[in-house]
Amino acid sequence: MLTLLLVESLAAPIGAAAAFDALRNSFEKTGTEAGYAVTSEGKPAREFVSAWAVYLNGFLVVMGLLFMVLVIYGGYLWMSAQGKEEQVTRGKDLIIQAVIGLAIVIGARIIVELAILTLGDTVQTS
């Protein structure tokens, strides 16, 4: 009985290590398939800045499409006004607001890019 207990207590860490390795391998596989492969130095192959740029570019595409739709809708309101000054004013205002919104989004993008470039140069990643 004591021998069985001793053998099981020695085998338990081996089983735990095998389970940990299986879990770690599954995490590595998931990360690799998601584009975050780990290099031999232990660093991810895709850095935070490049991953952030992918998401930011996608967001800007969606925002650009939204503003384009608003400008087209404002133009439609303006062209279909048929002399109604209220609708002409509404169409012009919508176009102006969409252009201002797009300028704000582009300005924010420039500020974020400058911040990332500046912080990326000053912060040591080790």
Automatic annotation (TrEMBL):
Pfam families (UniProt xref): T4SS_pilin
InterPro entries assigned to the protein according to its UniProt record, in alphabetical order: T4SS_pilin
Transmembrane segments: 52-73, 94-117
Keyword set includes Transmembrane: yes
Protein name per UniProt: Uncharacterized protein
Entry keyword set: Membrane, Transmembrane, Transmembrane helix
Source organism: Candidatus Buchananbacteria bacterium RIFCSPHIGHO2_02_FULL_56_16
